[in-house]
Amino acid sequence: MAALNETRNAIHSVSGGLASQGLMLMYHADGVKLAASDDSVIIGVTAAESSRDASGALENAGGTVAVYPLSGIVYIKAEAKADSGAGAKFGMPLYADAGGTGYVAWAAVDGNSTKVGYYMGETMDIALGDLVPVGVV
Asked: Residue 105 and residue 119: Cα distance in Å, rounded?
């Protein structure tokens, strides 16, 4: 039996592959893909970039990627967050980004936005693409 925090391998359906860790993924019949909108059902987070072919290029759709399930605390790439020097604060709710980036957003777009979890880090400014600790729901 696998521990809850172990990665699992999955086929992805992303043209050009997945070039980073910490990207939120959703289910797709052809393989996991980046969360497409703020109301996507998030199933996991990339543990690293996806597989590469013999020439070293990221594999297109059909390649594999290691995925952390949404349990406990996972590190997810985030949108920028800076508010008059206060920035992100422990316990702030985080949502699926509406832009299809696979990043977490600091605010819901609307009532249909998927809450991913809560920020579990220090009070600080966050730059676009920073990995932030998220206590998932």
From this structure: 11
Amino acid identity, position 60: N
For residues 51 and 57, give the distance between their C-alpha atoms in angstroms, rounded to a whole number.
8
pLDDT tens figures, 17-26 = 999 999 999 9
Distance CA 36, CA 81 (A): 21
Which residues does residue 119 pair with via DSSP β-bridges, in sequence order?
Answer: 134
* 3-class DSSP string for the chain: CCCCCCCEEEEECCCCCCCCCCCEEECCCCCEEECCCCCCCEEEEECCCCCECCCCCECCCCCEEEEEECCCEEEEEECCECCCCCCECCCCEEEECCCCCCCEECCCCCCCCCEEEEECCCCECECCCCEEEEEEC
Q: How much is the pLDDT for 52?
A: 97
